[in-house]
Amino acid sequence: MTQTVFIDGAVGTTGLEIAERLAGRDEFSMVRLPDEQRKDPAARREAINDSDFVILCLPDDAAREAVALCDNDRTRFIDASTAHRVADGWTYGFAEFRDGQRDAIAGARFVSNPGCYPTGFLALLAPLIAKGLLPADWPYVMNAVSGYSGGGKALIERFAQEPDLGFRSYGLNFDHKHLPEMKAYAGLTHDVIFAPSVIRAFRGMLVDVPLHLGAMGSARADRLLDVLSGFYAGSRIVSVQGRGDLSELLISENDAPTDRLELFVCGNAQGDHARLIARLDNLGKGASGAAVQNLNIMAGLDETAGLRL
Q1: Which has more pLDDT, 122 or 253?
Q2: Which of 14, 161, 236, 261 has the fewest CB atoms within 10 Å of its CB?
């Protein structure tokens, strides 16, 4: 049976990429509003209540308002904003990061899409902390670089208008919107020290968590690699590799879209120093691809349908 989907905020970067992934799929029928009605509360209310699924690609306050426009107990929501990521009654939409999460998403009415940076961080650390290989009370540090599309239209325009801008470090006040979900879903005692930056590439992301395993009294790098490899074995989206012959990890200025998530464990010869690194597309598994994957799971379909793998 065809199910209806309304993307509220369909003209933004995330919404457009979700629509591209859903294009041509017979399982879904898209509910669309004319441009002049996109911000009309009455038109949005009707579209929301007429749809089986609503995907919110909106600023946080607008996402909360959209949920409040729903007058029924049938319509199911996927929120790509930050508004509901740690909110009561919402299921975290990261199927792979812990056992049982996929089933929770399948049965949920309200699903919050993870942030792009937390996707990399949690994929690397959450399984290792859950299995006792890394401590939950360690003050973790995360360095990360992202393509500028993650900043939405304003940052995309800035990079277009400032051709000499190659690197932008931000979050210097330690108050980043992704911190609560990283702490909550990794089960950490302390906030993460997060150093995000943006580079002159449209899309792509590297999330890098350095670990002094010797000082932590934790398992060595090879053991972390073995556990992560076993945990994600069989996944069609997440892959795990060791250092091996790896000498560098790259983001190109015009990388093609992908919904894959690649994890790497790099260690020194003694194995007491490690870097856990995730590479993903901030618009793919970090946003639009994750939303489509969650939609597939909630609709009882092959979760990789429509994804770019």
Answers
A1: 122
A2: 161
HSE (side-chain half, CA atoms, 13 Å) at 104 = 16
> In the chain, how many domains are there?
2
Tens of pLDDT, residues 217-241 = 999 999 999 999 999 999 999 999 9
Specify whether 143 is located in the same domain as 240. Answer: yes
- Can you tell me whether residue 55 is helix, strand or coil? strand
Please check whether residue 92 is in contact with residue 284, taking contact to mean a CB–CB distance below 8 angstroms.
no
Q: What does DSSP assign to residue 247?
A: -
- Residues 31-38: contacts with CB within 8 Å, 24+ apart? 31/4, 31/5, 31/6, 32/6, 35/11, 38/10, 38/11
Co-location of 198 and 134 in the same domain = yes
Tokens of 210: 């350095």
**CB contact at 8 A, 249 and 278:** no
Q: What is the pLDDT of residue 245?
A: 67
> Could you list the residue range(s) of the whole structural domain that residue 133 is in?
116-282
Query: Is-contact 54 48, C-beta < 8 A?
Result: yes
Amino acid identity, position 172: L
* Helix H or strand E encompassing 130: helix 116-130
Q: Which residues are bridge partners to 3 per DSSP?
A: 28
Do 79 and 137 have their domain in common? no
Our answer to whether residue 57 is catalytic in this structure is no
pTM above 0.85?
Answer: yes
User: What is the number of alpha carbons within 13 Å of residue 56 lying toward its C-beta?
Assistant: 32
**Is the residue at 305 inside a domain?**
no
Q: How far is CA 153 from CA 59, 127, 224, 265, 270, in A?
A: 12, 34, 38, 34, 45
